[in-house]
Design brief:
Rossmann fold, six-stranded mixed sheet, about 375 residues, single chain, seven-stranded mixed sheet, 10 helices, alpha/beta, 2 domains
Length: about 375
């Protein structure tokens, strides 16, 4: 049997005589679960573990809602943080699609983070549940034959890839649809923990793939994606992989000119502007400003910087005060490593109601 990830030969790891076949664990009357023999194969090259597909063609037509988000009961912030983390790697948050959205639990959460969300779900049962939640969903398998348009900046897939026999038919299609610089999150059970700890209750006929961190990363790289981050959650026994389609590279000088144009377009209408942060990046960000920008305060929380100057800004650094914040119509954050903390301080401690501009990776962002 060839490895689905790297196409190398696999070896038989173990034969399981009684593997759970059915998806519904609760019924209205007494019953005994149906089991089938399952053979696990391991790839010694990429460490992927896999099994042959023993399911009937209509197995997923009546997929249960309980198979999806309900397993995360009580973990609301945990789920939202996945989209928050994904966004930090993206060029924008305009359009996203979810591969295998199930009953729509995660798609509903995605709507808080993206302007447009689309779910693709092959099970008629869970598709109808999603539709009844007024979610934007399509009842179909995700493949090259499905036209959902282009221009997507993100995709998500939660507990799907462990079910797929043709991994690259799905992942290559996702790559095609994404814009350059677009990214995605792939969430799967942690096959390395399952096999190392012999978690027999995690081996089911529905799962034909048991990804390890190396095999998951190799799969993404083989489709052309950049691997950005992989995170393991032992309590949930799952892996999150964050990936990105390489962006068309912009030259350093062109990037500086681009950022200067964007910053100027944001702050040009403000008369009283303050800057927060006199750290190492300040000398670079200051080059994006010019004499037309009325900088009235250059703020920093470090006392040893007070009274000193940064290249290109003709006023000295001063400590952060309520009066300085109150006099400002807009605040530009140069200390990008502390964006969240400074924004929170401005809004909550100093009750600042004006524009906040900050640098977030490749993007200059603004918050009213």
């Amino acid at each position: 049997m060839k490895c689905r990830v790297c196409c190398k030969d696999t070896i038989i790891m173990e034969k399981i005589a009684r593997c759970e076949y059915e998806q519904f664990s609760l019924r209205n009357s007494p019953f005994k679960s149906q089991n089938k023999e399952l053979i696990l194969h391991k790839c010694e090259s990429c460490s992927h573990v896999q099994a042959e597909n023993v399911l009937t063609d209509d197995f997923y037509d009546f997929y249960s809602e309980s198979e999806g988000e309900s397993q995360y009961f009580g973990h609301s912030d945990f789920l939202d943080n996945k989209f928050i983390k994904l966004q930090k790697y993206l060029l924008n948050n305009k359009k996203m699609f979810e591969i295998g959205c199930g009953a729509g639990g995660m798609l509903k959460r995605a709507e808080k983070h993206f302007d447009y969300c689309l779910g693709i779900e092959p099970s008629r049962t869970t598709y109808n549940i999603s539709k009844n939640k007024n979610l934007n969903v399509i009842n179909s398998y995700f493949s090259k034959n499905l036209d959902i348009g282009t221009g997507y900046s993100a995709f998500a897939s939660f507990r799907v890839f462990e079910h797929l026999c043709d991994l690259y038919a799905v992942l290559d299609r996702a790559y095609e649809i994404l814009i350059p610089g677009g990214g995605g999150i792939i969430n799967v059970p942690n096959g390395q923990i399952i096999t190392e700890q012999s978690l027999y209750h995690q081996v089911v006929c529905q799962h034909v793939n048991y990804f390890t961190p190396p095999s998951l990363c190799i799969m993404a790289a083989n489709s052309g994606f950049e691997v950005l981050e992989i995170e393991s959650f032992d309590s949930m026994n799952e892996l999150d992989l964050y990936i990105r389609k390489p962006a068309v590279r912009v030259g350093f000088d062109a990037a500086l000119r681009r950022d200067k144009r964007k910053l100027q377009s944001i702050i040009s209408s403000y008369k009283n502007i303050s800057v927060w942060g006199a750290g190492a990046k300040a000398r670079y960000y200051s080059s994006l400003l010019d004499d037309s920008n009325p900088i009235i305060h250059f703020l920093d929380s470090a006392a040893n910087k007070e009274g000193l100057y940064v290249s290109g800004i003709n006023i000295p650094v001063e400590k952060v005060t309520q009066s300085a914040i109150s006099e400002s119509d807009a605040v530009i954050i140069f200390a990008s490593a502390y964006n969240r903390e400074i924004i929170k301080t401005l809004r909550e401690e100093y009750r600042f109601k004006g524009k906040i501009v900050y640098f977030d990776g490749q993007e200059i962002r603004e918050e009213d």
